[in-house]
Design a protein that fits this description.
With 218 residues, the protein is α+β, with helices and mostly antiparallel strands. The protein has five helices and four strands. It has a four-stranded mixed beta sheet with strand order 2-1-3-4.
């Protein structure tokens, strides 16, 4: 038989051991998480991670898109500025060319008006030929003699009336030529020839103005 003292001690130890195991089981049961709740936590965590990733991705994409958009907008604005600059330059060139054309047209118009006025004035004032002949005489050397003054028949009559004495003193002779338009003349000497016809004088005037204009007979 087992003594009472030992039996009691053994029973107390056994009881203590069972109590300790029960306590541990109760603590394990208390800390255990239900499967449904664990699944819910995992699902919530997954949703939160997805939402966070989506937000970060949107933010990154938005920033990159904004940067790309700004760069593209800047490039387009530079292209537009270049196009406008080209248009301004082209417009300036066209304007300068237009000014040149207008100036040339005005000069041609002025020559046409002067030509018309001269053609109108000569029949009305035939004496206008006298200064021309006087100027031509002065162009010849003083020793020139026996010069021929070739004139339109109508002008020849007028010259004989006003310059006959001066021409005779210098040995000049007057020759009528219907092929010379009134208002002009030609002078021929042994070594010189001066063309003072209207057509030649008009071409000289136009050339001095940088134009090529021909005197047309009416």
């Amino acid at each position: 038989m087992i003594p009472k003292e030992r039996l009691t001690a053994y029973q107390r130890w056994e009881m203590a051991s069972f109590d300790e195991d029960a306590s541990k089981q109760e603590q394990g049961a208390a800390t255990a998480i239900p499967a449904e709740k664990l699944t819910a936590i995992r699902e919530q965590t997954r949703h939160e991670a997805y939402a966070k990733g989506l937000a970060e991705g949107y933010q990154t994409g938005h920033s990159e898109g904004l940067t790309a958009g700004l760069a593209e907008g800047h490039e387009q604005s530079q292209q537009l500025i270049a196009q406008l600059s080209g248009l301004v330059t082209h417009f300036s060139d066209e304007l300068a060319q237009a000014d040149t054309l207008i100036a040339a047209d005005l000069l041609e118009l002025a020559l046409n008006i002067a030509q018309a006025m001269l053609k109108t004035a000569l029949p009305i004032r035939p004496e206008l030929v006298l200064p021309v002949i006087t100027e031509v005489i002065r162009e010849l050397p003083a020793l020139q003699r026996n010069a021929k003054l070739i004139l339109n028949p109508d002008d020849a009559i007028l010259v004989k009336q006003h310059l006959h004495e001066e021409l005779s003193q210098n040995g000049w002779s007057i020759i009528e030529d219907a092929g010379i338009e009134a208002g002009g003349c030609r002078i021929e000497t042994g070594s010189n020839q001066i063309d003072a016809t209207l057509a030649t004088r008009w071409q000289r005037l136009a050339a001095a103005l940088g134009k090529e204009a021909h005197w047309l007979k009416p």
